[in-house]
Automatic annotation (TrEMBL):
Its EC number is 2.7.1.-. Gene3D superfamilies: 1.10.287.1250, 3.30.420.40, 3.40.367.20. Residues 11-239 form the Hexokinase N-terminal domain. One of its GO terms (biological process) is glycolytic process. GO terms for cellular component: cytosol; mitochondrion. Residues 245-488 form the Hexokinase C-terminal domain. Keywords: ATP-binding, Glycolysis, Kinase, Nucleotide-binding, Transferase. This is Phosphotransferase.
Amino acid sequence: HATKKTMADHLRKYEQLFTLTPQRMRMITQAFSEVLDNGLKKHNQVVPMIPTFVFGWPTGNEVGDYLALDLGGTNLRVCLVSLQGEGKFEITQTKYRLTEEQKHDDGEKLFDFCAECLKTFIETNLSTVSEPGANVSFDAEEKDKKSVQVEQTESTGHTETLLQPGQQLPLGFTFSYPCDQERIDHGVLIRWTKGFGAPNTEGRDVAEMFRKSIEKLDLPIKMTALINDTTGTLIASHYVNPRTKIAVIFGTGCNAAYMEKVSEITKIHDLGLNKSETGPYSEMAINCEWGAFDSHLHEHLPRTKYDQIVDETSNKPGEQAFEKLISGRYLGEILRLVICELIDEGVLFLGQNTYKLEKPYCFDTAFLSLMESDPTDELLMVIGIFTHFFALETTLAERQFFRALARLVGRRAARLSACGIAAIVTKMGYLDEGCSVGADGSLYNKYPGFADRVHEGLVDIFGDKGRNIVTHHAEDGSGVGSAIIAAMTKARK
Ligand code: ADP
């Protein structure tokens, strides 16, 4: 008869399920690269390879005051950015809380709320030069103040910005969901991602919707550019570090952007764009929306049954297949599902009440970070997480198992990301000369060893030459990047 399995025995099973061999990674990279190419040639592909109408790199000499509003995930953020040229800038920003209800409330209301936050921000941070007789100040009487500030205004020594009567500040609107654009100040939402689901928004021009909300409040703002955070990150990182050729976001979602030759984006050649190899309009940033890689057909990525459950119980089954294996929103949930399976099998927490752990999405990806960085032999941090948040007692063997499991899930995410980066590098021929990848998001910034694992993955795919590709912490794309793009747009008009 079978002897009782130890936690180490259980771990071996999960090691098999979650480990990616270099060979498998190269296959994924190859397939990924082909999918990226298809997205440039044809409309409505799984990975949409969205043309951003951001033409070429910034010079580093863009100057002036710009506003940026960032609607991208957990919070809503408003920034005032002073570009000072030579790759320098100052920024003042405030974050506002966004509730789950607001993410699923009517789209129009969501944009009205964004405009209200802008109004609050302007009233706090911008002074209007008053002229005798001319009343250009805002209605200071706020009867119904709905915007809830979650963080004090942060500033990098901003000198006070004065607004002349009648002056309109250019605003870059960072809207980090896949949109079809025909020009820089327009964008039709293809579909919500990252847990958003506001009705009456998909299929509509969100730039226009937001513009209407701004008009309702009569704000001194001209929205000049609709930007994806990933594109903003690409531009902001290049502004400061010109070796940057690719940007990747590892946050609630996962996405990448890079600069492509317009001559290669054949699906938009009918728009009458310049198809020559040189000149100011010969390159355009592409927002890959690579989180959608392998959606629906699931041909290329190794998915475990836990990944399938995550997918099936998500609000968008079948979609964002790559993202669901990588991004911060899902890693904790994947680990939780493994633990729940072992609870059901009677392996873990026998005799204890596990209801707190049975709630979907209760296990935050930040817990994986904490478990992996626990420096104590007893794994005191892991004890703390399970007792404090889930009222559960653990043995040392169990804690070691949880930590090892976190390592498997986190490492797989990093190595899959390496495949995506490698696909762009291969496609663009960056391997020999090397390049830098601007990366941002909590997963990249806070998960211990995440960047090293991406780098190891690149070496597994490319061999030694993989060392030519390095990631670095990106500049703030949705604030500074958005402002730079608003400035580039203005300069080219
Ligand atoms: P955004 O929502 O704009 O993408 P972030 O980049 O902060 O914002 O990403 C949020 C995601 O990162 C959440 O899914 C959260 O679970 C995860 N996260 C937060 N803190 C950590 C951490 N310390 N380690 C790993 N993941 C984290």
